[in-house]
Amino acid sequence: MVQKVLIANRGEIALRIHRACHEMGLKTVAVHSTADADAMHVRLADESVCIGPPASADSYLNIASIMTAAEITGADAIHPGYGFLSENADFADIVKEHDIAFIGPNGDHIRQMGDKITAKETVKKLGIPVVPGSEGGITNDDEAKRVCEEIGYPVIIKASAGGGGRGMQIVRGADELSVKLNTCRTEAKAAFGDDAVYIEKFLTKPRHIEFQIIGDSHGNCIHLGERDCSLQRRHQKVLEEAPSPVIDSETRERMGGIVAKAMADFGYCGAGTIEFLYEDGEFYFIEMNTRVQVEHPVTEMITGIDIVREQIRVAAGEKLSYTQDMVRFHGHAIECRVNAEHPFNFMPSPGTVTQYHPPGGLNVRCDSAVYAGYRIPPYYDSMVAKLIVSGYTREGCLLRLRRSLEEYVIDGITTTIPLHQALMDDEDFQKGDYDIHWLEKFLEDKQD
Ligand code: ADP
Q1: CA of 253 to the centre of ligand 1 (A)
Q2: Closest by alpha carbon to 32, among 3, 18, 53?
Q3: Per-residue pLDDT, 97
Q4: Measured in Å, how far apart are the chain's first and last C-alpha atoms?
Q5: Could you report the average pLDDT of every consecutive run of 10 residues in the chain (448 residues)?
Q6: How far apart are CA 372 and CA 353, in angstroms?
Q7: Fold of domain 4-103
Q8: 313 classed as catalytic
Q9: 2 with 316: CB under 8 angstroms?
Q10: Which atom of ligand 1 is nearest to the CA of 436?
């Protein structure tokens, strides 16, 4: 078993990982940029190392600095969290070459799933349904035209190396195709250094439904059910829930079973998420994330399983603590992402938090690294907290969420809490009747 975990991340996820480590009796090492010297993850960790200046490229993405910090502190495992280096296959390889356990899958698996064209081909072979589209990358206009005519408009052009909701173009008709193809390629090259793009059918009213899986190095892989992440703005998730209001237990068992078996056959070791679009009763794979997700707590709330703990165990070569039969789903959970942004126009609002009082009570969880007096640095992402609430039923969960949002005090900055409160009052949301485009329309109405 590992003894000391270096946490190569910041903010709430660094705290989340620290908590799992301390519950397992493991020591932690925090790394931080100069902008984060006062951060909560640094205060809580057993040791800390400054790894560079504020810019992520020089600190949280600086592999040499992070490896040096691991060497100096004698860490025998590294947890990358999400974002930053979490899906960097070369980093996973380098960590392993230094005889340090990488808390995530092996480099080859990250590489295969990180390239979306390869990922789609791989999962298709493993028996997972995919969105109809081009077989592999698109190299010229004629080929693009042929594929689009075959699958029918609208289509979406996506960068193979894309992520974070970037590098996508929707094409409504043949007249737009050539220009959008060029735009997508140019943007992909600029943003990801790779201009490979592919085409798939643009689904007009799907939900975003993803399955959580965890595999170990002994050939076992289990699923922990699905999360519904359809509430998105600019392809970024805003609120997530588990279970999905539209998936019944039979469908959950069937799809979860397909996904877990596929990943066991793949030999996957670690936590992962298989993302689907779901429309008219059909699932279509869009991508796999080979790391812990921001929204993992909703799954933890309804299963009682500590996903980060399982990640650490399997990375240390141990077996999963659970078999599929032991996984039980109880009640309903919802997570609200609280960002330091205007609730309706999303203008960033960095600054100093003057008062901080998170809600509490039964089945209320607040994952945040904020405290009164904390200055939110402008260099990193704008999420400052995740409020996760569960209830025996979805209705009960919504009542508790409304109460918790009411209690939440974050003074000194503007946050997206009022957006979540507005959602609680919306009839469609209350009924669970929404698709991935619903929130954008809801926000347009709010601007009027
Ligand atoms: P990223 O890696 O940037 O998150 P994804 O492939 O996961 O990209 O897609 C992000 C979001 O974009 C999805 O949740 C969905 O809202 C939208 N999207 C992606 N593919 C399609 C599609 N074929 N049809 C409709 N919407 C799509």
Answers
A1: 24
A2: 53
A3: 98
A4: 57
A5: 96 98 98 98 98 98 98 98 98 98 98 96 97 92 93 95 86 94 93 93 96 98 98 95 98 98 98 98 97 98 98 98 98 98 93 98 98 96 97 98 98 98 98 97 86
A6: 6
A7: Rossmann fold (3.40.50)
A8: no
A9: yes
A10: 16
Q: What is the pLDDT of residue 164?
A: 78
CA of 202 to the centre of ligand 1 (A): 9
Domain boundaries along the sequence of the chain: 4-103, 132-201, 207-447
CB 94 within 8 A of CB 88: no
Q: Is 124 exposed, middle or buried (0-12, 13-18, 19+ CB in 10 A)?
A: middle
* Architecture field, domain 132-201: 2-Layer Sandwich (3.30)
Q: Scan for tokens 């699923």, then name that residue.
A: 223
| CA atoms of 5 and 30, how far apart (whole Å) | 9
Residues at CB less than 6 angstroms from ligand 1: 131, 156, 162-166, 200-203, 206, 208, 232, 235, 275, 277, 286-287, 436
Q: Smallest Cα–Cα separation from 90: which of 74, 122, 72, 66?
A: 66
User: What per-residue confidence (pLDDT) applies to 39?
Assistant: 98
* Cα–Cα dist 239/241, whole Å: 7
Contacting residues for 310 by C-beta, under 8 A, at least 6 apart: 214, 271, 320, 321, 322
Is residue 243 reached through a cis peptide bond, with omega within 30 degrees of 0 on the bond before it? yes
Task: Domain 207-447: state its class.
Answer: alpha beta
Partner residues linked to 5 by β-bridges? 28, 77
CA-to-CA distance for 103 and 7, rounded, in angstroms?
10
> Tokens 């070459």 appear where?
97
Closest residue by CA, ligand 1 atom 21: 202
Q: pTM above 0.90?
A: yes
Q: What per-residue confidence (pLDDT) applies to 73?
A: 98
Backbone φ and ψ for 441, nearest 5 degrees, come out as -70, -40
Tell me which residue has tokens 């007096």: 373
